[in-house]
Amino acid sequence: MRARLDKLVLTANYKAKGRILLLPINGEGKCNLTFDNWDAGWKITVSKVTKNNKEYVQVDNSKLFFNTTRLHMYFENLFNGDKSLSENMNQFLNQNWNVLLTELKPALTEAMSQILQNVISGPFSKIPYNELFLE
């Protein structure tokens, strides 16, 4: 599968304790990741399984690959309430988005791939193969 989006916006709650690019981070709150010109490919491996004398599709594995021309990030409360430090860190992260993305891309692609796999596994497990794919 292939997808190209002008913008992909992900919002979530985060909790972080550690370092990003050697800088200490300790906080939790809402975050926003906005990808410009998101270009992705998603490869899934499936097999047929039989349940109750009917064939279904089972997703065995999936892998997402993506590129973007820009990543905009915003993490609120990066330093447990120190707004000035948090704003400065967000500015720094956005100025160095490409370095940060290189570091985070493996974890991001794994998480996105797992979410997509879970989304399609539900219908595949409930709709028989011959109703999904007409001869």
From TrEMBL:
Name of the molecule in the record: Uncharacterized protein
InterPro entries assigned: Haemolymph_juvenile_hormone-bd, To_sf
One Gene Ontology CC term in the entry: extracellular space
Pfam families assigned to the protein according to its UniProt record, in alphabetical order: JHBP
